[in-house]
Write a structure and sequence with these properties.
The protein contains 17 helices and 21 strands. It is globular and about 65 Å long. The structure holds adenosine-5'-diphosphate (ADP) and magnesium ion. The site of magnesium ion has 6 residues, from helix 1.
């Protein structure tokens, strides 16, 4: 298929044969693409397809190995993000580049002329955030903000430069449906002003909803260009993956065994003024069961994960039991020793050390007793790097982790592939208990179904699994029971078949069994 034709005169950006090598590996390989003024152009592709690499070249973060970028009819060399901004290109990254200790306005100031007074920046940011429907307090500290709010900072920061083209790298993978809708309003406003948007996503429904054209990448090459509204999700998925995406298969008849996770009236005070206080949280998870915890972002999911994993301990030892043992006061390593595995939400720097090879990351995640298998024993007790590498290789094979090289640094993997590796790493230990927060955050359809299947298979083999997720489709796909968290309180788990989307929506709005329904919940 060739690129959809756009008249030359109406082209804002044109890319010809753009190629980027990492060593001998071509992450982008001869890419052709053109973007018209005032269009929302989707860049589609599964994890590792080369989307982020392509837009980093357009924003001057990476230099192309080959090919040409033509901006408003003139060949352009974009040497740095500063040069990109000067041309009129703004970018909202997949992994935010914000300093947590600084305020919103201070973060924005970092990418602007240092002579502009901070008060003026705060003022302009406030106006822009109001005009574009992106509520933001310029004086708030980034550390206290939710992911959605952090993204708004990046968008406002990009808008302050009055860009002609705004690139968003997987923006909705961190947003609730409501936040995503609000973002789409912003994008339509930008379009109406004649600005162009390059919108990276793997969510086919939203691409069909908001994008005028789509370019599809696979293995670094353009595999199709189309009007997404004339395609079906299945035909788009086929262009992305090259074949049909496997559905997730579940066993409804898994017998439930012993209670492996028990939470009784768990309370955790907020650690910062903006964190959520958890109170009265109770649940039991049996062997063979997947309890999914639904909720709108920022209602205590992160705090609950920290408490369940032992990242944060509580004084009441029996508030949490894992495999029958009270662990409230036990830290994360002690809980791992009992047979629990944990996958946090924030992968870079939390679940994996970016600069280290996959095999070294594997070694790091193992508790002392697990590590014995990696030691040669005897007088010269040395680390068996060959064993570790072969396990890392097995995990990559089982989870279909796409990477460049045999044992690359974790940071070189695309987000979805790193997530497959991290989940595979935890599953490889065959944990009795697995607790995951947002397992398919920023992950494409193919990788997501693989991860979900792996969670189901683990439960089927007799483990107890807790999945904290904002994605209701995911929740219905994997859960045997569903609980809803709202403002730090959690509903009881319901059998998955017992709950409708509407009921979950009501629980998300904070209505629990004990209270009577209010009309106003949908207004939240
Ligand atoms: P996408 O954004 O479509 O998920 P990326 O552009 O992030 O994909 O990555 C494309 C491929 O290039 C992946 O296989 C990834 O591992 C590889 N890659 C990306 N950045 C680097 C890097 N700095 N060094 C080596 N390989 C990289
Ligand atoms: Mg990417």
């Amino acid at each position: 298929m060739s690129e959809a034709q756009v008249p030359e005169a109406g082209t804002l950006l044109k890319v010809r044969g753009l190629t980027k090598y990492f060593g001998s590996f071509a992450a982008c390989n001869g890419i052709d693409l053109s973007i018209a003024p005032g269009e929302i152009h989707a860049l589609l592709g599964e994890n590792g397809a080369g989307k982020s690499t392509l837009v980093k070249m357009l924003f001057g973060v990476l230099q192309p190995s080959e090919g040409q970028i033509v901006w408003q009819g003139k060949p352009a060399v974009i040497g740095s993000p500063g040069e990109a901004r000067a041309l009129g290109v703004g970018m909202v990254f997949q992994h935010f580049s914000l300093f947590e200790a600084l305020t919103v306005a201070e973060n924005i100031a970092l990418s602007l002329d240092p002579k502009i007074p901070l008060a003026k920046i705060a003022e302009e940011a406030k106006n822009l955030s109001r005009d574009y429907g992106l509520p933001l307090d310029p004086n708030a500290h980034v550390a206290d903000l939710s992911v959605g709010e952090r993204q708004r900072i990046e968008i406002v920061r990009a808008l302050l430069q009055n860009p002609k083209l705004i690139i968003l790298d997987e923006p909705t993978s961190v947003l609730t449906p409501q936040e995503a809708d609000r973002l789409f309003e912003t994008l339509f406003k930008l379009k109406a002003e004649g600005r162009s948007v390059l919108y990276i996503s793997h969510r086919l429904e939203e691409v069909q909803r908001i994008c005028d054209r789509a370019t599809v990448l696979r293995h670094g090459k353009v595999t199709g260009a189309c009007d997404p509204r004339r395609e079906t999700p299945a035909s788009l998925a086929r262009m992305m993956v090259g074949s049909d995406v496997a559905g997730v298969e579940r066993a409804s008849d898994t017998p439930l065994g012993d209670v492996l996770v028990s939470v009784k009236d768990l309370a955790v005070p907020a650690r910062t003024p903006f964190a959520v206080t958890l109170s009265g949280i109770s649940m039991q998870v049996r062997a063979g069961e997947i309890v999914a915890i639904a909720g709108v972002a920022g209602n205590g999911q992160g705090e609950l994960f920290d408490a369940l994993s032992g990242e944060v301990t509580v004084p009441q030892d029996d508030a949490i039991e894992i495999c029958g043992r009270p662990v409230g006061r036990t830290g994360i390593n002690g809980r791992r020793l009992l047979g629990a595995g944990f996958v946090p939400e924030e992968r870079h720097g939390h679940a994996a050390v970016s600069d280290m090879a996959l095999s070294d990351n594997l070694l790091l995640s193992r508790s002392t007793s697990d590590r014995k298998a990696f030691l040669s024993g005897g007088v010269f007790n040395v680390i068996r790097h060959d064993v570790i590498r072969s396990i890392a290789k097995r995990i990559c094979g089982e989870m279909d982790v796409r990477k460049s090289g045999d044992d690359p640094a974790a940071g070189s993997l695309s987000g979805g592939n790193l997530q497959k590796f991290i989940i595979g790493r935890e599953l490889d230990r065959k944990p009795q208990v697995l607790i995951v927060n947002q397992p398919t955050w920023g992950v494409d359809a193919g990788a997501a179904s693989r991860i979900r299947q792996a969670l189901i298979d683990l439960a089927r083999a007799g483990s107890a699994v807790v999945v904290i997720s904002q994605d209701l489709d995911e929740i219905f796909e994997v859960a045997t029971s569903i609980a809803v968290i709202s403002e730090g309180r959690m509903s009881r788990p319901y059998a998955a078949g017992e709950l409708t989307l509407e009921k979950i929506g009501l629980l998300m709005g904070g209505i629990h069994d004990s209270t009577s329904p209010r009309e106003a919940v949908h207004a939240h």
